[in-house]
Amino acid sequence: MTERLYLADDAVTAFEATVERVLSDPDRIVLDRTHFYPTGGGQPHDAGTIRVVGDGGTARWRVVDVEMRDTVYHEIEPVNAAADPDDGAVDADEPPALPEPGTEVACEIDADRRAAHSRYHTAQHLLSALLLDEFDARTTGNQLYHDRARLDAEYDRFADADLDRIEARLNELVADGRAVSSYTMDRETAEATLDTDRTRIDLLPDSIEELRIVEIAGADDANEPYDRTACAGTHVSNTADIGEVVVTGRETKGPDEERVRFALAEHVDAD
Ligand SMILES: [Zn+2]
């Protein structure tokens, strides 16, 4: 199976790899190793480009989807020559042959898109933790995008004053500049030692035996982390990197279930 490098280092956005398998309809490639994040855990896939190493850069593809099945599949489309005629990309009418297995490729991830996902994902961990701590509201789902996010939690109804308090607390935690770190742990140990309301291990498929744990540091004088969650997504390394967060609204998701919408301040229209 493809070595999933983004689990060990979620800051890398350029890397080289070898093509292992090529599939068509749609065109997809499997690499021996990848930093491309596949859609999962409420986080959208990465985008970027792949080019063949050592042939003058004539063949280049855009990565338009990344999917995790038995391994990681990168769906690719030839880069249109018209968009950038001087970079040696081929004519769109005659797309390059797909890279053969064994081909060395240089990969570049859209860093802005990745950074936005990492910021939203880390904000979601803070929000889940504070809703549990301060409202006894357990997170039941989440979805983030590059410019907004939402989170569902078991709760009767958040009043406007609650939303104000949630937003203020979120921004305190951001401003605290708390370290975010990750490590792996086997499932048995995790189930025996971690708070399962927080880690949500029960929601993971039984096939997953090794978990990636993501921790957000507690206050200066605390030994316990503020949050500790099993998560395979990408995150920033310090909560300060999230930037200002705005709670943009709420709605009823179902009986005793609330949906909270939030966005980074730079993605909220000033009005
Ligand atoms: Zn996460």
What labels would you give this structure?
4 helices; single chain; alpha+beta; Threonyl-tRNA Synthetase, Chain A, domain 2; 2 domains; globular; 271 residues; Elongation Factor Tu (Ef-tu), domain 3
Walk me through what this model shows:
With 271 residues, the chain is an alpha+beta fold. It folds into two domains: 3-109, Elongation Factor Tu (Ef-tu), domain 3 (Beta Barrel); 114-267, Threonyl-tRNA Synthetase, Chain A, domain 2. It has four helices and 15 strands. It has helices at 111-135, 160-175, 187-193, 196-199, and strands spanning 3-4, 14-23, 28-31, 33-34, 48-52, 60-68, 72-78, 104-109, 139-144, 149-154, 180-186, 210-216, 227-230, 245-254, 257-264. It has a six-stranded antiparallel beta barrel with strand order 2-3-7-6-5-8. Helix 1 (111-135) crosses helix 2 (160-175). The mean pLDDT is 91. The protein binds zinc ion (ZN). Zinc ion is lined by residues 121, 125, 214, 231, 233, 235.
